[in-house]
Protein: DUF5666 domain-containing protein
Amino acid sequence: MNESATLRRFSIVLLVGLLVVTAGCSSLAGSDGQPTDATTAAQTETPSPTEHPSSTAADSGHGNHDHSHDNESASNATAENAGRIAVVVAGERVDLSGEFADREAIRMDDDRRDTYHVDGDVTLQAALSAADIEANASALSYDGETYRDATSGTEVVYRVNGEPVAPGEAQLDPGDEVWVVVVENGGTVDTPGDYIPPERLHVHGDIEFTVDGERVDFSREKYQQAGHNDHFHFEGGHANPWHAHSAHVTLAYGLSTLEGIDVTADTVTYDNETYRYGTDDAAAEILVNGEPVDATDHYLKDGDSVTVVVDTDD
Structure:
């Protein structure tokens, strides 16, 4: 075969192949070069790897969701509406554990002493009644004895978060710290009384002690000595609050535990100098919550604000 014939046959084969390829491309695209309807439909029917077919609530198994677990969680959250309470009557700290066992609205914590849980509206009076303690604004009855605030030497004190309250009006709320105290001055309890360990609810308040207008700084190290007194102290490098670890710490006892300070029924000693208080012309003044007191028979209550003023020029 000559060279001219071979070249002609090769050209024919090349032309046929080109026509076949062109025809195939035309079947895959429209005249404008876009995908045909068939191709588009095929792509639409193929789910994206990141998409999931939608389902109804019944299909997913959530249509008849059981809320009993949700209710239990809500109940547990409500039960965690916790506060703390202490009741001290004539030197005895009343054990409230188990007293509210049959009460739905209030109960004592099984593991944390002094801790109560409330669910609903509960007054302090109702809570005490559940523990067989009958209380009103001026009297308290417990274990067959009635203590009246009007009786000479007897104090019946109700405080919530350091504030005086009427037991029939005060609602117990989460986070409250509640104190109910009956104190008989001159009774059988010796100062400083039974020690309350730090993990249990104990008594706090604030103090301002000034000498010639200058405030004594109880955050100083000499007033912060660890273990200087278990029943009354400052701690953590703070000048306030003071801490009393008994319901029978008198103001005189507490202040007299501090270095360089001594208090009696009518005198205040500071920095080796003694000043009288309690009279109009006295050089010193001692107030609790704005009222003059005899420091030797005032038992510190939760929330008490103590003021001691000494004027060395008088």
Summary: The radius of gyration is 41 Å.
